[in-house]
Design a protein that fits this description.
Elements (H helix, E strand, L loop, with lengths): L2 E7 L5 H17 L3 E7 L3 H7 L6 E4 L10 H9 L8 H8 L1 H10 L7 E5 L13 E5 L9 E3 L6 H6 L6 E6 L4 E8 L2 E10 L6 H5 L4 E4 L6 H18 L4 E9 L7 E8 L9 H8 L4 H10 L6
Parallel strand pairs: 1-2, 1-3
Antiparallel strand pairs: 4-7, 5-6, 5-7, 8-9, 8-11, 9-10, 11-12
Helix pairs in contact: 1-10
């Protein structure tokens, strides 16, 4: 397997993140010895399909957000019978739909935040649950659209009126404490990173801006919490049917002492591969440099047709 097409860019709110991931991946795969065809994806699917002819040996999917990690492009690649990196249609669609993923986590006995799905219009007139709580789009990544409502906050009506992510949103109890994440590669959880965000929470700018956050690898938390976070991340990866690499995000409430309460927020089936991303950092901590990580992903590419 030597000829790899890299899909990057896309048409989601995370296009800039994907462009950054793609550039990194292209360089890494060339360093690893692959013949690479960069394909910057735009709104015309026919143009993308034309660039996949002749078929490459594999596609490295560096797309993020809607149409890139929600099962859409995965279905196209299955139809074309081209092996691709990361998860397949079902796992990708489930993970991108926060309500569906949460239902799967609950069914698997994994710890999640209390909450539910609400009509956004209903938030204009009343709080859906006691403050503090979090409002999230159902189908976005990279913390796009996430809002935290705290005691005394009067932004609820304006947030609901200006909402641009569909008619419904997921609302959950805000979990105090720390932000943690765990990368998974196949059947192995890597390590636990604590994220110290430069803003009120780990938002889009904290994720991708230079200096937006600081990462502690491995997290300096109780050993029992480390072991449990890795166990939950691997269980969530399996529950959704993920393949290749994924990343599970957590809140860790240690406000009453350690070991604290771990709450699974979501699983990302297309972890970022930018210069500030977490999965490459964890892999490097364990001795796998970025070209080796990208090579591993290509070697684990599969077609699910």
């Amino acid at each position: 397997m030597t000829r790899v097409a890299v899909l990057y860019g896309g048409i989601s709110a995370e296009r800039e993140v994907s462009l950054s991931s793609g550039r990194q991946v292209i360089l890494a795969l060339r360093t690893a010895g692959f013949e690479v065809t960069p394909i910057e994806v735009g709104p015309d699917l026919r143009t993308t399909l034309a660039q996949l002819d002749p078929k490459p040996d594999a596609v490295f999917n560096a797309l993020h957000g809607r149409f890139g990690e929600d099962g859409a492009i995965q279905g196209v690649l299955d139809w074309l019978e081209i092996p691709y990196t990361h998860s397949g249609v079902r796992a990708s669609a489930m993970a991108m739909d926060k309500a569906a993923a949460k239902a799967m986590f609950v069914a698997s006995g994994l710890p999640v935040a209390p909450g539910g799905v609400f009509d956004v219009a209903s938030l204009i007139d009343a709080d859906p649950m006691p403050m503090p709580y979090v409002i999230k789009p159902l189908n976005e990544g990279s913390s796009v659209g996430v809002e935290i409502m705290r005691e005394g906050d009067n932004r609820r009506a304006s947030v609901a009126s200006g909402w641009r992510f569909g008619s419904k949103a997921i609302v959950e109890e805000f979990i105090p404490g720390r932000e943690l994440t765990v990368g998974v590669m196949d059947d192995h959880a890597l390590t636990v990173t604590e994220i110290l965000a430069g803003h009120a929470f780990y938002d889009y700018d904290s994720k991708y801006a230079d200096g937006g956050s600081r990462h502690v690898v491995p997290a300096q938390i109780h050993p029992e919490a480390i072991a449990r976070a890795k166990e939950i991340a691997l269980a969530a990866h399996r529950a959704l049917g993920c393949a290749g690499a994924s990343r599970a995000d957590f809140r860790y409430d240690d406000t009453k002492g350690e070991p604290g309460r771990l709450v699974l927020l979501e699983v990302n089936t297309q972890p970022g591969l930018t210069p500030t991303s977490l999965l490459p950092e964890q892999a490097a901590h364990l001795g796998m440099d970025f070209p080796a990580l990208c090579r591993w992903m290509v070697e684990h590419a599969a077609c699910r047709a």
